[in-house]
UniProtKB/TrEMBL annotation:
It comes from Trichocladium antarcticum. InterPro entries: OTU1_Ubl (IPR048857), OTU_dom (IPR003323), Papain-like_cys_pep_sf (IPR038765), Znf-C2H2_OTU1-like_C (IPR057766). One of its GO terms (molecular function) is cysteine-type deubiquitinase activity. This is Ubiquitin thioesterase OTU. Residues 119-238 form the OTU domain. PROSITE patterns: OTU (PS50802). Its main location: cytoplasm. It comes from the Eukaryota. GO terms for cellular component: cytosol; nucleus. It catalyses: Thiol-dependent hydrolysis of ester, thioester, amide, peptide and isopeptide bonds formed by the C-terminal Gly of ubiquitin (a 76-residue protein attached to proteins as an intracellular targeting signal). Its EC number is 3.4.19.12.
Length: 317
């Protein structure tokens, strides 16, 4: 079966397709080709952990590593300049680019000298639970996907007048049964409910439009997440890019408009990197029955009609 893996390298984000029966060695070669890097280390998961790519382990199958839907971060070990760069450098030496202490290539960040640190993008795994992980991590919850799915489902069933079939687009019992499954996407309804449950404003910034959708306006505390079409990540503040995510600040007072402005600035940078999926025309495939459709609306219709909720974006060459 063909699977997709997201790659984050210093020059941006991309995706590769590979047979799950292929070996780790084949994956490493594909990454070399995609990134044009000869030497690198790999990390994956959340929090990030090393992927051991020693030659003795490269016969391991991709299926055994359970990498389907993962995001792999590529960190150069010995970056070599291209010949043209070497020639230019010899003619007129240039100062080395600024690189903050401890900066990892998976972090897209903005220096914030007024506050003595950095606003950073914390990348969530592509496992259909990214929204729950992004929000739950901001609250330092253990096993956020499981906990938050159950809380959302229980809340819907406890408020039948507010969350009717008209609002949900499906029978509440069927809707909540699906939402408890770990491969079902969460969206605006779930964000609104989580805002009520935890009494926080959730500000969701859309990368493509830079629009800010606020769930739970009027509350005292704010969490900021970033929406890139079919994926959610978390916005956080750290004093040093080398600090672990456990030291992040990811909750702010709603009167702190400067952090929201800074987050939109970070989203603007990501937009320039085309860090979003245009959900109006991207081609998707149901990983349950191999149905193929176009756009988020088709996916939502297919999910309502079949109960299938595992989708992948198809790459059209």
């Amino acid at each position: 079966m063909m699977i997709q893996i997201s790659i984050r390298a210093p020059d941006g984000q991309s995706r590769i397709q590979i047979e799950d029966e292929s070996t780790l060695g084949k994956l490493v070669e594909l990454i070399k080709t995609k990134t044009e890097l000869g030497s690198f280390s790999l990390k994956y998961g959340y929090p990030l952990k090393p992927l051991d790519i020693r030659p003795s382990l490269q016969s391991t199958s991709i299926k055994d590593l359970n990498l389907r839907g993962e995001t792999i971060v590529v960190a150069p070990l010995d970056p070599r300049p291209h010949a043209a760069d070497v020639q230019a450098a010899s003619a007129e030496p240039k100062p080395a680019p600024f690189k903050p202490k401890g900066m990892e290539p998976d972090e897209t960040s903005l220096s914030w000298p007024e506050r003595g640190g950095y606003l950073v993008l914390r990348v969530m795994p592509d496992d259909n639970s990214c929204m729950f992980t992004a929000f739950g991590g901001a609250l330092s919850l253990e096993n956020p996907s499981r906990v938050l799915r159950d809380k959302v489902a229980d809340y819907i069933l406890a408020h039948p007048g507010k969350y009717s079939e008209v609002i949900l687009g499906d029978n509440p019992q069927r809707y909540t049964t699906r939402m408890r499954q770990m491969d079902t996407w969460g969206g605006a309804i779930e964000l609104s409910i989580l805002s009520d449950i935890y009494d926080v404003e959730i500000s969701s910034i859309d990368v493509k439009s830079l629009r800010v959708d606020r769930f739970g306006e009027g509350k005292d505390t704010r969490v900021i997440i970033l929406y890139s079409g079919i994926h959610y990540d978390r916005i956080a503040f750290c004093l040093d890019l080398g600090h672990p995510v456990e030291m992040d600040e990811s909750r702010w007072g709603t009167e702190d408009d400067s952090v929201l402005s800074k987050a939109r600035e970070l989203a603007q940078r990501l937009q320039n990197m085309h860090y979003f999926t245009d959900t109006t025309d991207f081609v998707i495939k149901c990983e349950v029955c191999n149905w193929i459709g176009q756009g988020a609306r088709d996916a939502a219709t297919h999910e309502r009609e079949t109960g299938h909720s595992r989708f992948g974006e198809m790459q059209i060459e």
